[in-house]
Every structure is written in C-alpha cells, then in structure tokens.
Amino acid sequence: MARAGSGLSKSLILKGLQCQKALWLAKHPPDFELPPQPDLQAKFAAGNEVGLLAQQLFPGGIEVPYEGLSFPAQLARTKELIENGTDIIYEASFSFSAIFVKADILVRDGDHSDSWQIYEVKMGTGVKPVNLDDVAVQQYVLNGCGLSVSRSFLVHIDNSYTRQGAIEVDKLFHAEDISAKVAARQQSLPEIVREFRLTMAEKKEPIIDIGPHCTDPYECDYIPYCWQHIPKDSVFDLRGTGIKKFDYYKNGLIRFADLPLDDLNLKQRQQVETTLNQQDFIDTQKVKEFAETLWYPLCHLDFESFNSPIPKFDGTRPYQQVPFQYSIHIQQEAGAEPQHFEYLAPPGVDPRRELIEQLLAVIPGNACVLTYNKAFEKGVLRNLAELFPDLAAAINLRLPNVRDLMLPFRRRDLYRWQMRGSYSIKEVLPALVPELSYAGLEIADGMAAMRAYHAMCELEDPVALAELRQAMLKYCELDTLAMVRILGALEHIN
Ligand code: SF4
Known about the structure:
The chain is an alpha/beta fold. The chain folds into three domains: 193 residues, Lambda Exonuclease, Chain A, CATH 3.90.320; 54 residues, no CATH class; 216 residues, Nucleotidyltransferase, domain 5, CATH 3.30.420.10. The chain contains 19 helices and 14 strands. Strands 1, 2, 3, 4, 5, 6 and 7 form a seven-stranded mixed sheet that branches. Bound molecules: iron/sulfur cluster (SF4). Iron/sulfur cluster binds next to helix 2 and helix 9.
C-alpha cells in the first residue's frame, strides 16, 4: 500500500518491525540500482483476486476503492458509510496519528452496534506472526479514530478444500479468531510508532548489520544493497544445514578460505575444498552403476506446472501443482540423436486429460523414463492416474520405469566445483555441458514458466500469445535437451 503524505503506513510499520534500516531506506532510497522483482506483479494480482473472492464471505458490502480516490476522499467516504449505518465495508480507510490503513473487510458487530469486526484476508494457509502485527496496526488506528473493535480475524486459505463446480467461498477460506493475540500487541504499538518516526527523521542511514532478519519474515528488498560486501564463495554459499552462518560472519570467518573445515559436514567440506582447489570429484564406479540402471528406449521427461491459491479446475486443491506442459526427448539407443515431442496447453482450459493422453501416446510402455527430480514427475503422474481411472493402468505401467538423473549429482558421485554445492540442473548443466545454456532465454526457470502460464491465460493479442507460447516451448525443450546432454556426459565417463 502506498504511503499517505509523509506519514507512516501499515506496510512501513511492518517493514520497520523487520528492520529499521529497511524502514529508513524506504524513506531515503539509496543511490543504488535495485534489480526488478519479477514475482511482485503476479503476487499482487493473485492477492487482489483472493481479496475480491473473500468479500463474498460477507456479501452486500460497499467498497472504498483505492484507485481513483485520494487518501482524504477514501477517509471521507469511509466516515460517511459508517455514519449512514452501513454494516459491511470493503477496504475501509482510516488515519490516526498520520498512519493510514485500509481494512480488507469491516463488519458491524450486530445491528446498530458501535463495535466492529476486522477481517484481514491473506493468501497463505495459516496465521503467521507478521499477520498479527498487520491486524494489530489496523486495530490501533481504528481505536485511535474512536472505533471499537470487538473481534479480529485472519481469513486464510484452507488447503484441505477440493473444488467441485463453482468455488464455495465458505470452504475455500477459513476465518481464524486472532483477537487475543492482536490485543496483546496493542500496548507496545505507541512506543514502536514513536521510535519509527525518529528513525525515519534521521539524516544518516542506521547502522544495522545483515542478519537472519534480512529474510524473515520476508526477503528484504535491500539485500543487493546491504550485502554488497559479501564476497563470492562465502559462508552464505555453503549448502546444507547444521552450521550457524551468521555466527561465522560475526567472527569474521566469511570467505571459504577462512572456514574451519572441521566444523563442516562432509559435503560442505567437499564444496569448500573443491572450490578452493578448483577440483572435480568423480566416483567412476558409482557413475557406471547409475548408468547401468537405465535402458533404451529412454525418454527424457519434464513437466511444467502451475499452482494458485484459488483452485482453477474441478478435483484440485489450493496450491496443488497442475501440469500444463511437457517436453520429452526420446533416444532409441545410447548416444543416438533424440526425437522431440512436446505439449503446451491452450490458455484457460483444464489441460490434464489432453496432456496425459498425448504423453501416453509417445512414451512406449517398456521405455525407461528419465526425469530430473523424479519425486515431482511421479507425483504428477500418480495424481493423473487417480483423476482418470480409465488411464490408470497405462500410467501405472510406466511409473516403475521412472529413473532420476539427479541421483548421481545429489549423491556427489560426480561433482564439479562449478556446481557450487548444488545438484540443481541449472548448476549441473553449465558445469558439465558449458556450450548449452539457459542464459538469454526469455523464460529461464520454473517460476518464470508458471508466471508465463498465468499470463498466457490472460492474453488476448494473438501475436503476443504466439510469442509467449514460443518462449515457453523453448524453455521446456531445453530442460529435456539438457538431460540428454548431461546423460551423454555421464556415459562418456565410463
Ligand atoms: S537487507 Fe537486511 S540489513 Fe539491509 S535493510 Fe534489509 S533487512 Fe535490513
């Protein structure tokens, strides 16, 4: 939410609760180019969709729109609605002590009552501490404006809901009473607000070092700015758990070369040593044993999927992965040039039946099916078998044939220092097959593919639609071509 004049807003207070330097930087932007956040717009759009749908829990309300009304006009409209006896207000606006807030849904607590219930809508599937702070700020402002708040609720997604037909809003959403926890936060708010105002008025940037607060509860916008001093190959690049990275940082043990190897687990030690010495590690026997678990014909398979808080199709739950695309490269024998097949759903229709029918038509029943992270592909196939009982036998015939190309890299049968401790295909490919790259692709990872799917469903311009589909096909094709080349590299090791 934007700020009202020079005052505080709810979002600025939440920023300050995470880190006062972030609050200060929001008011005094640094002379530093922050990279764009590609997810942001999609998140806003999804949040707006969820917010609008949740209003149906309390039908017949009147909205105080953000668009097209100045802040004073939003405040005046809210006041007017309250005075006129309106019982349900969406996006009601208030300002107290120069803090501006909008309440998602405000409901009068009984006929002619002077008390109100706050319903804050979130896309998550439970209540987080930051949500309590969020509603606490709203209640503080409403109380300051002379309104009594009887109860407050967090309306979140219930991910046990399965869609059948039209969305049932009372089942999709769960309203959790958070009144007591919100009340417990009221006492400290005046002092917090006073402190934040002093911080914002400071001429100099606050001296606050990086720490776990940089990503909790949210990934801070200013990470590229505040983390500039962290060198390449630092303690923060170490994979795996078990070491307290900020403890090492505070003790000046930042670069790989500074780290005491005895403190690290085997894989972390290997990551540090191979990076420092620019060495590779290959267990030829294990690589060979892995290759022997595969056979031909061999199908390199990759799905792309999307999820959304509001299930789009019958039989799906909130945030369930729904496949909309696959790419498959089929090799008849080791080293053979592969044949390529692909599927990308048309926009806006349930893609699952068409996708699985076409896939079954191209994967021979006796073929080895190679994936990269088989848990995901097998999960998708199992869901489809459950959804389409008439296809279950054909899907189940292929399920035991699924193998995982990630396995030798996760086990570190083969490790190159350029993999930076990771076994993701995005790190393994450039280390093993540098001539093939995701660089320069318009869509270069699974999240971008998911965003592209959502964008594709909204596009009306046929030219833009065709271009976007082309980019989506190119990305998914590269994923399975990468697998062909990586397997080729493994087979050369034998
Ligand atoms: S990156 Fe970390 S230290 Fe910098 S403003 Fe954000 S939370 Fe604060």
